[in-house]
């Protein structure tokens, strides 16, 4: 059984009185252990697809099965709990809380979990160490470089021990060398921990490192490339 199976996904937004078809009958599976990219130009629907896979948005039509469970049928509160326990997110703008230190940012998702204060702090420190920032735990975001802030965001995505991490344009605000280093880090985490990574991107670096690339155009899958 795949980790995620998307069946006939369609998403329609209303722009005034005009229907915008962001996705059109998309079928997709995400296997356990994958390191894959959803690629396409701006407006192709890749972020919408990522948001639906991550239970942030619901499809207009179709279903999403997560380990065989149809998450599209869950209520808002049930979806929030599901995201908390199963899915990590990485955003291109990092989305760190500026008044919190690195370790407090990483620890933040754990506040809604039934964990002791000591266990939360231990897990946050371990997550920071896994991305090579154990010694910078008490720095605030404005005291970190762009690459270091993205590493904090990766640690925050991993701290809840999710089944899958969804990364929306994770290299968009990084220079070439820093973006490559962040990708290599995520590839290493995928290999060592088995964490699934799915990226939405138009960055050739991401596509070259992904082991499967799904190409979207106008909300439809037009090509799939797999690297042995």
UniProtKB/TrEMBL annotation:
SMART domains: AAA
Listed SUPFAM superfamilies: P-loop containing nucleoside triphosphate hydrolases (SSF52540)
Residue ranges constituting the ABC transporter domain according to the UniProt record: 4-227
Coiled-coil residue spans: none
Keyword Acetylation: no
Family: Belongs to the ABC transporter superfamily. Macrolide exporter (TC 3.A.1.122) family.
Name listed for the protein in its UniProt record: Putative ABC transport system ATP-binding protein
Species: Desulfacinum infernum DSM 9756
């Amino acid at each position: 059984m795949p980790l995620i199976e998307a069946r006939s996904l369609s998403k329609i937004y209303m722009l005034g009185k005009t229907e915008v078809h962001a996705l059109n009958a998309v079928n997709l599976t995400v296997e356990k252990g994958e390191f894959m990219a959803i690629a396409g130009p701006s407006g192709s629907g890749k972020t919408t697809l990522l948001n639906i896979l991550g239970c942030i948005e619901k499809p207009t039509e179709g279903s999403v099965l997560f380990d065989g469970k149809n998450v599209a049928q869950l209520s808002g509160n049930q979806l929030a709990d599901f995201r908390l326990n199963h899915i990590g997110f990485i955003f291109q703008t990092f989305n760190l809380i500026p008044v919190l230190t690195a370790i407090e940012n990483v620890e933040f998702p754990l506040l809604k979990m039934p964990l002791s204060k000591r266990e939360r702090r231990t897990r946050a420190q371990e997550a920071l160490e896994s991305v090579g920032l154990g010694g910078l735990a008490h720095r605030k975001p404005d005291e970190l470089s762009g690459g270091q802030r993205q590493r904090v965001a990766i640690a925050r995505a991993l701290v809840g021990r999710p089944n899958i991490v969804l990364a929306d344009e994770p290299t968009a605000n990084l220079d070439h060398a820093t973006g490559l280093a962040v990708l290599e880090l995520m590839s290493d985490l995928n290999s060592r921990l088995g964490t699934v990574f799915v990226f939405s991107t138009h960055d050739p670096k991401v596509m070259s490192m992904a082991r499967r690339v799904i190409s979207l155009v106008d909300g439809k899958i037009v090509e799939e490339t797999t690297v042995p």
